[in-house]
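WARN  no MSA supplied for this record, continuing single-sequence
INFO  ligand: 1,3-dihydroxyacetonephosphate
INFO  echoing inputs
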Amino acid sequence: MKIIAGNWKMNLSLEEAIFLSENITSSKKNEIILFPPSLYALKVKEIVSEKNIKVGVQNIFYEDFGAYTGEISCMMVKSSKLDYVLIGHSERRKYFFEDDIIINKKLKSAIKHGLKVILCVGETLEERKIGNHFEVVKNQVLSSIEGIDNFNSIAIAYEPVWAIGTGINAKPEDANEMHKFIKDIVNVKILYGGSVNEKNAYELLSQEYIDGLLIGGASLNYISFNKIIEISENI
Ligand code: 13P
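INFO  complex generated
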């Protein structure tokens, strides 16, 4: 079973989110997950639950409740009957200064509340250029999972920062090599993210160690997202 996940990031009006949710097709064999802005998550869940599509949020705070204006907790996500949380996306690391210590706390909170997690890791262009990408990703993975011994509810998304939103996806064989490297550290499903579209999805999904896709831009359009779901059905 492959995982096809759409990260809508901070996009779409409520009307557009409803329209998109209504038009996404279900999969007979793969797991489809949507990560809308959290404000829309319950509405999206209501629309897609009949289609066996899972819904998650793009971020959480690690405390359960309290004076943390603007944040939402895993307790809230769980009590809203949502399924997934994305943790450690590079945009959270870059714009909101999340480091591996914070990410580790978030991961532990999600596991405590029984949420499924997609943990994001990936190197920057500078790190790849100097050949440091394996070391960087290894450190991100190891620090994020420190103190955790049950990986049943965790998947990892390898998202090279230089491939996100740039139209330049990692070469499938390079992504595959990194996925194998990560799987040797922790044996969980590894998704690829970074400029995935309906043209490159087949080749990426055909790689031995690519267990799914985390899609940004192409998940905002139901025609391209459905096409990728259809491609995943035939792998
Ligand atoms: P793009 O597919 O727009 O490159 O975004 C990837 C991503 O960041 C998914 O989390």
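The first strand starts at residue 3 and ends at 7.
INFO  checksum written, moving to next record
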